Amino acid sequence: MNKNITDIFFDLDHTLWDFDKNSALTFEKIFRVHNVEVDTSEFLKHYEPINLNYWKLFREEKIDKANLRYKRLYDTFEAINFSANRTLIDQLSEDYIAHLSSFNHLFDGTLDILDYLKPNYNLHIITNGFHEVQHNKLRNANINNYFKTVTNSEMVGVKKPNPKIFDHALNLAKTTKEQSLMIGDNYEADILGALNFGMDAICFNYHDFPLERNIKKVDSLLELKNYL
């Protein structure tokens, strides 16, 4: 690892903030509120890959935020043969965003690794998530004070892996790509995005995605101590 690293940029969802666990709890809550009688585990089995696919389309500017929020639910209800009208889907979509940051499970080791890194590095966030939700997640999970800057895609108008978002984040942090490191779970957005921009990167590969041998990776956050 480059010994000149001064600034570390983290992805938030699926890297520090346990999106899948918090999302599942949110769906359980809003389904109860609206008396949606579906098996949540069956719903999530279909929703999670559908959601990931729509986020890929969103990163690639092939779909906007409103369609992402609506279609991921519409397609999932279709997949489980549950009849949901437009009004219900719109309400669930709004409530999902409203309640998502009320659950704040972090990945194991998040606080320990942030405490370990903070005395020696400037810590930052680069996220493709929505502005109004991401700041609530950081605040409600009590980790916002670890980070000097937060860059989200809505501020910049583009999403990772677009180099413009990395450039914006570095300018905001007043640092250089040679002194910076990206840590995230998404191979395309976080790792290739950073490497192609000229930043070093480490993949938090908790989902065991097949990676080229030259990609730095950890299976748990505390393994970052082996690099930093």
From TrEMBL:
Alphabetical list of InterPro entries matching this protein: HAD-like_sf (IPR036412), HAD-SF_hydro_IA (IPR006439), HAD-SF_hydro_IA_YjjG/PynA (IPR011951), HAD_2 (IPR041492), HAD_sf (IPR023214), PGP-like_dom2 (IPR023198), Pyrimidine_5'-ntase_YjjG (IPR052550)
Alphabetical list of Gene3D superfamilies matching this protein: HAD superfamily/HAD-like (3.40.50.1000), Putative phosphatase, domain 2 (1.10.150.240)
Name listed for the protein in its UniProt record: Noncanonical pyrimidine nucleotidase, YjjG family
Lineage: Bacteria, Pseudomonadati, Bacteroidota, Flavobacteriia, Flavobacteriales
Organism: Oceanihabitans sediminis
GO molecular function: 5'-nucleotidase activity
Top-level taxon: Bacteria
